[in-house]
């Protein structure tokens, strides 16, 4: 046996303060009513820091600061000068990427190899990419002189805390808006470190404001009268509530919500790579991915072989300490999320689907869930319809390409889909018929700042990334 | 096992009898997606192997080295020195294991055999008009028999890439079968020369062809063309031996050769073996490195782990 010795990344590279205030108008301030909550490490339940809880007064203060910065500094500033700040932020993120990666893994529970090799490179790439647009907006295809919207209220989820921050802040700032951002209550730390990076980059005060808190803070933010634009990534339920709240107002809205993506494997697929794609599709980031390939649709004639290969591959997944460089699957982000995953998987078993997990030892403390697949799943099962948002794959079979399309589209969601086949013509035929914002062919979970991302149906509206992502922050 | 899982064992042994059956079978193997295979190989390359795991990996890698010299300038003196090093790679440390084998040209086999006699180090010889394989079959077989008679217990043959690329699979198959026969009891390693096969689909087909024809090992390269062993090529070959065992019950070894120079590289290969085919292949009987300069780097890293300091290159023998 070849046992890998522990290879932990050092946590001393990042300095976590015992408590954090709100980042408003360029400085950290205490909240008006002094409330706070704790952010914990989901792999150990250890408290990492005390975080200020922003109330309505704090949100108001932040929106005013953003408005002032928009009117006086950031709005009038030439695009090339805004670009300089964005490039500077991008470079500082690269320089401090190890620190940010460790902090992300501590606060979120994701394995260090993902925060180091996926999240952080993409975060920097997003800032670099949108920095390039800041002085070229007249060439973006939205008219000769497109104007920013004003103050953007941005509420982001806990699955990719810093990456979602980058997806929101980089295009908003490039287009000339100022922002008030609320990170998720379980993962505020990298956003607060990003606030320090804004100070380090000497970004003018008020251009970026970060107000921490939970649902009530977010509600106060999106409902604030001084906000011109609302951007939200998170659950479909909250997205609906936000859509209702801003309906009839001048606020422009983009939503990136849930998904229940089909990963479709045909009988002529490159099997070994398809299995990698299935694993990456559902177990990447513990399945806490809105575009996760959570429904495997496999052609019935190869289902047994593909499942055998998948199970063999799953037995190699290393679950454990997120800071160990060899960990493939880290901790579930919170007790609440773990309870939701348990509830849905228990429903799956109760409804008659067959459950399988590789033998794997889970740590005693913290929130953990073994990688799991359900076979014998039908379209009627809850685990085939509801977003689990965890390392749980539902396996369904199909007989013909038309049936694959029908099953893939038979969901209220429409964020992403994957197709595995060696036949190019079939890829194009399928892509034309799949109602999903992103269709991956012979790959999965590939992201790039130049590529627009967003959903059909209840997966939301608007696009983030690419030239298309600018539209959400311009008056067009 | 994938597309061939349902093929019964007897079916596979019949394949070589017909060009059409062989072609249909090889072209029916699942394809390899280049981007995906390279991505998987790169991912495995990011494993962090430290402390006790590293020490274990280094000793295993030393035991897997086929210490090789394949030069026109090889002399009895040169190969004797190499064989001595194979027996005791680190004269300063008796706990250092011996290598897997010494690999030389047929003409050098008798000199190596004298040194290795009575030891557990195998004696491999390249044969079949290495490295091009462009000679009449009779000459290739005579080459093989001569090497075995001179004392080689492992034969590294080259496949006929010209015939393979021209689609004459039966010709390649028959040559391997004939060479295997000429080997007698000696183990047969079949060199695919993957750098000349160019695509991963070809690597997978050639791997199956070599296994179907009776090869005991499949080996990537001669080391004589610009592209030698790579991680993705080795990954595709490992998947092939895994699937072949699932289909037939017979285990075949894998030998990447050429271009593997550092301990870091070697450890990446061992991680790949571990996570693709598992511990059954983590043994010198089933996995080898065809290399020359790799050994000294392994020895340097080994010394570093035991003493805590790096010794200069002058402390390791150059043979």
From TrEMBL, chain A:
User: Can you give the residue ranges of the Aldehyde dehydrogenase domain?
Assistant: 29-476
> PROSITE patterns, from UniProt?
ALDEHYDE_DEHYDR_GLU (PS00687)
From what superkingdom does this record's organism come? Bacteria
Keywords from the named record: Oxidoreductase
Q: Where is the active site?
A: 256
GO MF annotation: an example: oxidoreductase activity, acting on the aldehyde or oxo group of donors, NAD or NADP as acceptor
Which Pfam family, giving just one, matches this sequence? Aldedh
Q: Which family does it belong to?
A: Belongs to the aldehyde dehydrogenase family.
Name of the protein in question? Aldehyde dehydrogenase family protein
From TrEMBL, chain B:
Q: Does the keyword Lyase apply?
A: yes
- Known EC number(s)? 4.1.2.4
**GO MF entries:** deoxyribose-phosphate aldolase activity
Q: In which pathway does it act?
A: Carbohydrate degradation; 2-deoxy-D-ribose 1-phosphate degradation; D-glyceraldehyde 3-phosphate and acetaldehyde from 2-deoxy-alpha-D-ribose 1-phosphate: step 2/2
Q: Does the keyword Metal-binding apply?
A: no
CDD domains this protein is in?
A: DeoC
Q: Which SUPFAM superfamilies match?
A: Aldolase
GO CC terms in record: cytoplasm
Gene Ontology process terms (BP): carbohydrate catabolic process; deoxyribonucleotide catabolic process
- Keywords of this entry: Lyase, Schiff base
InterPro entries given in the database record = Aldolase_TIM (IPR013785), DeoC (IPR011343), DeoC/FbaB/LacD_aldolase (IPR002915)
Catalysed reaction per UniProt? Answer: 2-deoxy-D-ribose 5-phosphate = D-glyceraldehyde 3-phosphate + acetaldehyde
The record's top EC class is lyase
Q: Which Pfam families match?
A: DeoC
Which family does the similarity line name?
Belongs to the DeoC/FbaB aldolase family. DeoC type 2 subfamily.
Q: Which NCBIfam families match?
A: deoC
Q: What is this protein called?
A: Deoxyribose-phosphate aldolase
């Amino acid at each position: 046996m070849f046992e890998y010795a522990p290879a932990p990344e050092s946590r001393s590279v990042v300095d976590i303060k015992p408590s954090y205030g709100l980042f408003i108008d360029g400085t950290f301030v205490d909240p008006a009513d002094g409330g706070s909550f704790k952010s914990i490490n989901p792999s150990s339940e250890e408290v990492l820091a005390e975080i200020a809880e922003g109330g309505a007064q704090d949100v108001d203060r932040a929106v005013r600061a953003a408005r002032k910065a928009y009117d006086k500094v950031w709005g009038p500033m030439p695009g090339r000068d805004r670009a300089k700040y964005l490039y500077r932020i991008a470079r500082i993120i690269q320089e401090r990427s190890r620190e940010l990666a460790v902090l992300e893994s501590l606060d979120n529970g994701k394995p260090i190899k993902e925060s180091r090799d996926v999240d952080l490179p993409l975060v920097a790439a997003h800032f670099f990419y949108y920095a390039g647009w800041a002085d070229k907006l007249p060439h973006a295809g939205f008219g000769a002189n497109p104007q920013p919207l004003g103050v953007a209220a941005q509420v982001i989820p806990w699955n990719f805390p810093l990456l979602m921050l980058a997806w929101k802040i980089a295009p908003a700032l490039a287009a000339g808006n100022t922002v008030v951002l609320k990170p998720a209550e379980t993962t505020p730390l990298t956003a607060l470190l990003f606030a320090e990076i804004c100070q380090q980059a000497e970004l003018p005060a008020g251009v970026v404001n970060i107000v921490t808190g939970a649902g009530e803070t977010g509600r106060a933010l999106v409902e604030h009268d001084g906000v011109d634009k609302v951007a939200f990534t998170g659950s479909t339920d909250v997205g609906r509530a936000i859509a209702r709240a801003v309906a009839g107002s001048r606020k422009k809205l983009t939503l990136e919500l849930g998904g229940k993506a089909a990963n479709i494997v045909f009988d002529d697929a490159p099997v070994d790579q398809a299995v990698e794609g299935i694993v990456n599709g559902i177990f990447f980031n513990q399945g806490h991915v809105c575009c996760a390939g959570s429904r495997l649709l496999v052609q019935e004639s190869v289902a047994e072989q593909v499942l055998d290969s998948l199970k063999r591959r799953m037995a190699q997944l290393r679950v454990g300490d997120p800071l160990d460089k060899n960990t493939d699957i880290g901790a579930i982000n919170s007790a609440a999320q773990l309870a939701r995953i348990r509830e849905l998987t228990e429903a799956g078993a109760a409804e008659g689907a067959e459950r399988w997990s590789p033998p794997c030892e889970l740590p005693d403390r913290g929130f953990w869930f073994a990688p799991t697949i359900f076979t014998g799943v039908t379209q009627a099962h809850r685990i085939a319809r509801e977003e689990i948002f965890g390392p749980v794959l539902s396996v369904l079979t199909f007989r013909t390409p038309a049936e694959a399309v029908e099953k893939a589209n038979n969901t209220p969601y429409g964020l992403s889909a994957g197709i595995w086949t060696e036949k190019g013509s079939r890829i194009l035929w399928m892509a034309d018929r799949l109602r999903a914002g992103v269709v991956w062919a012979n790959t999965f979970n590939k992201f790039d700042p130049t590529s627009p991302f967003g959903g059909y149906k209840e997966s939301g509206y608007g696009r983030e990334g690419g030239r298309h992502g600018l539209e959400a922050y311009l008056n067009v | 096992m994938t597309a061939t899982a349902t093929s019964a064992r007897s079916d596979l042994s019949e394949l070589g009898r017909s060009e059409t059956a062989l072609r249909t079978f090889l072209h029916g193997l699942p394809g390899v997606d280049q981007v995906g295979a390279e991505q998987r190989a790169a991912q495995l390359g990011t494993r962090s192997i430290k402390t006790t795991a590293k020490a274990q990996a280094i000793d295993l890698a030393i035991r897997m080295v086929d210490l090789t010299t394949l030069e026109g300038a090889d002399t009895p003196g040169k190969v004797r020195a190499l064989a001595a090093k194979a027996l005791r790679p680190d004269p300063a440390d008796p706990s250092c294991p011996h290598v897997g084998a010494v690999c030389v040209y047929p003409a050098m086999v008798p000199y190596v055999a004298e040194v290795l006699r009575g030891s557990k180090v195998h004696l491999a010889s390249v044969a079949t008009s290495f490295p091009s394989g462009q000679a009449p079959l009779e000459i290739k077989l005579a080459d093989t028999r001569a090497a075995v008679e001179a004392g080689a217990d492992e034969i590294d043959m080259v496949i006929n890439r010209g015939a393979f690329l021209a689609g004459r699979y039966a010709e390649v198959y028959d040559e391997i079968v004939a060479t295997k026969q000429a080997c007698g009891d000696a183990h047969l390693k079949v060199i695919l020369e993957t750098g000349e096969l160019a695509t991963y689909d070809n690597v997978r087909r050639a791997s199956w062809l070599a296994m179907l024809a009776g090869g005991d090992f499949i080996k990537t390269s001669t080391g004589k063309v610009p592209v030698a062993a790579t991680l993705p090529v080795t990954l595709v070959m490992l998947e092939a031996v895994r699937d072949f065992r699932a289909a037939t019950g017979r285990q075949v070894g894998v030998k990447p050769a050429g271009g593997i120079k550092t301990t870091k590289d070697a450890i990446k290969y061992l991680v790949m073996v571990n996570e693709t085919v598992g511990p059954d292949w983590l043994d010198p009987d089933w996995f080898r490195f065809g290399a020359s300069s790799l050994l000294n780097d392994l020895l340097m890293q080994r010394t570093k782990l035991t003493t805590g300091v790096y010794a200069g290159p002058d402390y390791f023998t150059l043979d």
